[in-house]
Amino acid sequence: MNKLKRIVFLLAVALLSIGSAQAADPENTLIMELPWGAVTIEMRPDLAPQHVARIKELTRKGFYDGTPFHRVISGFMAQGGDPTGTGTGGSGVKLPAEFSGEHFVRGVVGMARSSSPNSGDSQFFVMLGTAASLDGKYTIWGRVLEGMEHVDKITKGPESDNGIVAKPDKLVRMRVAADIKK
């Protein structure tokens, strides 16, 4: 009986996961294509409306296509969105911070910034683990619904070099789900 309950529980969790992914709003869903698979990201305009609007604008312009994941720290995060790959580039538009009470846990997508809270631009990061030290200090604008196994494959940089990746993997293409023709 215990084994049957576990199977039923796991089936229910799987169905809920499928349902939540399918129920996502296509206008607020990103499909990030990595060399080995697609990652579905639910954007959170309820938390960060200006950041979500800017991410969608840049995505629709093809800004993120081919950009590298230049800084990746095992168990912490994978950072990309800089067309120069140096960690200092961006789109040229700074966004005001939109901090929330949400937590930086595995799968959360946040906006990278400099020491100034209002310096987010185009660079973002996907959490590979939990980092409570970021809570309330960085803007959360999304979360991965599907494809974390692909994010986990992104090449990591050495911790001794703050995760800077010598030969970074690149984001192949990013699209807003509403724009994808079936």
Structural write-up:
By secondary structure, the chain is of the alpha+beta class. It has one domain (26-179): Cyclophilin. 20% of the residues lie in helices and 21% in strands. The chain contains 3 helices and 8 strands. It has helices at residues 2-22, 49-60, 148-151; strands at 29-34, 37-43, 71-73, 77-80, 108-111, 124-127, 140-146, 173-176. The protein has an 8-stranded antiparallel beta sheet. The longest helix is centred in the N-terminal third of the chain and has 21 residues, at 2-22. The protein is globular, with a radius of gyration of 17 Å. The chain starts with a helix and ends in a 6-residue tail after the last strand. 35% of the residues are buried.
Strand order within the widest beta sheet: 3-4-6-5-7-2-1-8
Number of domains: 1
Biggest pleated-sheet summary = 8 strands, antiparallel
Strand percent estimate: 15-25%
CATH architecture: Beta Barrel
Counting helices, strands and paired strands, the structural category is: alpha+beta
Q: What global shape is seen?
A: globular
The average pLDDT is: 90
Could you give a quick summary of the protein structure above?
The protein is of the alpha+beta class.
